[in-house]
Design a protein that fits this description.
Layout (H helix, E strand, L loop, with lengths): L1 E5 L1 E2 L1 H19 L3 E5 L11 H9 L4 E3 L11 H6 L18 E5 L4 E8 L10 H11 L4 E7 L3 H11 L5 E5 L9 E2 L5 E3 L4 E4 L8 H10 L13 E10 L6 E9 L1
Parallel strand pairs: 1-3, 2-11, 3-4, 6-7, 7-8, 8-10
Antiparallel strand pairs: 1-12, 5-6, 9-10, 11-12, 12-13
Length: 256
């Protein structure tokens, strides 16, 4: 199975760039499934039904999220009604949506798990424990994990913890693609962060002057996304063994 996993899509400019580039990318890699993190896809942060639908209509099959998923109340009922859009599984069960999906591709079935780290983020259930529970409840050959986390050490630790039990663990949230795409000793693909899909000349997708003002003054600052300009789309290509589900190849890409 061939998989494309795409880093955090930022605002309408990122969504539009993904739509512009994804068809050719899917053809180039002969992708069976495309997964994108959409938690920043709405204008003004978070994710909205409109931005989620835009990504799905653009060729994305499954959407993961993170700590901004519940920022916009409009998404709550959408998460319950659309299982292809995930929220982190270690949020309480009472929250809208689900943190995993067994996705039927006809020839394949894919278990996708969305987890969130604890370091510098919300005090949720332990992602290591939640991963264990979901792997026991939903055994599958092909298993992918989007670990939305701040601390690189926490991401790497989960990668090794799940090595040999999942096809790949990919990190999201920090919006900067890391240079450590690799296959771990047990056969799982890994990268600390996929990167982002959005404006090149930005600070993690935000206008640099907004972020500079925040750092220089320590005052509340409205973060704004550039409305135009050159963009990039970051992610990884994964080739998974059809018999074992293990990762045979992982290659980071950046499309501009």
């Amino acid at each position: 199975m061939n998989v494309l996993m795409i880093g955090d899509v930022v605002a309408q400019i990122g969504c539009s760039f993904l739509r512009q580039k994804l068809y050719a990318l899917k053809k180039q890699w002969q992708a069976d499934v495309v997964i994108a993190n959409g938690e920043n896809s709405a204008v003004g942060n978070g994710i909205l039904p409109h931005s989620a639908t835009f990504l799905l209509d653009s060729g994305v099959n499954l959407i993961t999220t993170g700590n901004h998923v519940f920022r916009r109340r409009e998404i709550y009922s959408y998460l319950d009604e659309n299982p292809v859009v995930l929220r982190p599984a270690n949020y309480p069960d009472s929250c809208p949506g689900k943190g995993y999906i067994v996705y039927d591709l006809g020839k394949y079935q894919l278990l996708l798990i969305n987890l969130m780290g604890l370091s510098y983020l919300e005090p949720l259930a332990n992602p290591f424990d939640v991963a264990d529970i979901l792997l026991k409840e939903h055994p599958a050959r092909f298993i992918l994990v989007d670990f939305h986390a701040e601390a690189t050490g926490e991401k790497k630790a989960l990668g090794y913890y799940l090595d040999g039990r999942v096809s790949a663990v990919v990190g999201t949230h920090t919006h900067v693609q890391t240079a450590d795409a690799q296959i771990l000793p047990g056969g799982s693909g890994y990268i600390t962060d996929l990167g982002m899909t959005g404006p090149i000349h930005s600070v993690l997708g935000v206008r640099p002057d907004c972020v500079i003002r925040r750092h220089r003054t320590a005052l509340p600052t409205r973060f704004e996304v550039p409305e135009e300009g050159s963009c990039q789309m970051d992610g990884v290509f994964l080739r998974l063994d059809d018999q074992t589900g293990r990762c045979l190849e992982i290659e980071a890409f950046q499309v501009r």
